[in-house]
Amino acid sequence: MSFEALNLHPSILKAIQEAGYTTPTPIQQQAVPELIAGHDVMASAQTGTGKTAAFMLPALHTLATPAQIRGRGPRVLVLTPTRELALQVSEAAKKYGKYLPHINVVSILGGMPYPLQNKLLSQSVDILVATPGRLIDHIQRGRIDFKRLQMLVLDEADRMLDMGFIEDVETIAAATPATRQTLLFSATLDNAIDKVAAKLLKTPKRIQVSSPKSKLDNIEQRLHYADDMSHKNRLLNHVLRDEKLKQAIVFTATKRDADSLADNLYAQGYAAAALHGDMNQRERNRTLTRLRNGGLRVLVATDVAARGIDVADITHVINFDLPKFAEDYVHRIGRTGRAGATGVAVSFASVKDSMHLTKIERYTGQRIASHIIPGLEPRIKPRFHNNGPRGTPNVTQKRKRAPFSGFDSRPGFGATGESGRNRNGQGARTIGPDNRGNSFRSNNGNKASYQAARAK
Ligand code: AMP
Questions:
Q1: CA distance 182 to 202
Q2: Which ligand 1 atom sits closest to the C-alpha of 21?
Q3: I need a surface site. Which of 5, 116, 243, 417 has the fewest CB within 10 A?
């Protein structure tokens, strides 16, 4: 099927062509005609399936016809659980709507200053992309007029449910005209989502694209139980020494942890660097270029920063911390096994993560086998999550601890810490060659000079 067959406005087709899209993705093929026909739609689709365009293209198509009702309020409202997603949606709206006349896209996000938002809302708005909490503030202050609203999109509704935003979403929906068209996108369509849909959608068309399971078949998923931070660090050291590992992405929960872990790995001699949202675009691009040209062996990243990385040589993804959401697990491990290659995804979990693991497994429809590395066995045995071939070592390894990890057990991975020194106050030691076989000696442990060296 071609985009032309979807009967979208020619200006939208021009923008799609410019974006380099040739064929609509399955979710676009199914959702766009239903939406253009005016139906409510509830669709299960993950990020990465093209779901943003699946609702944004019909939304823009609606906007190509002048509003029937006079006013300045939004004609399309997209609610998202996170600021990052809201920004991505706004970018998509601008990208696909660039050849339509005067599409004003406004983002209203928590944590941003009110005066600027008040100013943006005082102008004529076509598409409003918002996180629920802040939007409610503005609604209560009477700053938004929804009488022109034609389309309400709930993006990643399952996450909004998980994050406790659903009441807010319902309050917002109640402030919009009953004549609106409502779209709900969610990673999964389960009972809880059905209840939300029953309240907010009118006889919706249900669309399901293939589950994430099929996408993960070329990725071997492994689980290691870790007692504490120190144990995680030793496990990581072990995994990174695997000869089959060409390049790896290690995911941490926070930006700060990504920085500290990258510094510590660098101090150990790994060609490692961090990638996260606090870095400016130039720094991010430079790091990604190094990853692409093989200058980096280990990238330590947060979820948002690593989205969309497509590097064929990434053989391993390591969840140093488990992701908050099952959907992110799929995004993360999908960074390996690109272009038909096989990949390895290693997750570290504590016994407290059992419920979390169950959620991930339910989402992917796959079990993650737990592995034990001789010499690095967990002290605490998990009681609830015993699904893999426990006791079966995945890698042959001598029964001895890694000679030097450079980490200690407190959060923040501190032994080298700000000073870049290990716990004996010595500079970091040389550990090994980088991925190009170069002998890789770290300097005397000064963090500033690490960074200078890394910037080269
Ligand atoms: P999403 O699932 O909305 O996060 O989209 C994932 C990525 O797919 C984005 O980078 C889009 O630019 C891209 N994309 C969306 N639709 C298409 C398409 N029909 N062909 C190629 N890429 C697409």
A1: 8
A2: 20
A3: 243
